[in-house]
Write a structure and sequence with these properties.
The chain is mostly helical. Helices cover 77% and strands 0% of the residues. The protein is built from 4 helices and no strands. The protein has helices spanning 3-16, 19-34, 41-56, 62-69. The chain is flat, with a radius of gyration of 18 Å. The protein starts with a helix and ends with a helix. The relative contact order is 0.06.
Length: 70
């Protein structure tokens, strides 16, 4: 399935959720984000390097790159 079809299928399924189910999904998503382990020192270093590259104009943040593609 291509991305557009998959997104449409997901949106249809979301619209079919009851309010109670939507609350359960929201709670699950919150729990998933809360369960993420802290970043390692290597990941923090990579993040800092990427932020430096973005500030220097060598990289674009994902949201900016995605907006250009759309």
């Amino acid at each position: 399935m291509n991305e557009v079809t998959e997104r449409e299928r997901l949106m249809t399924n979301i619209q079919l959720l009851t309010e109670r189910d939507m609350a359960a999904v929201a709670a699950l998503v919150d729990a998933l984000f809360d369960d993420e382990p802290p970043l390692s020192s290597d990941e923090l270093r990579q993040l800092a390097e990427a932020e430096e590259d973005i500030a220097a104009g060598d990289l674009s943040p994902w949201e900016e790159a995605k907006a250009r593609l759309l």
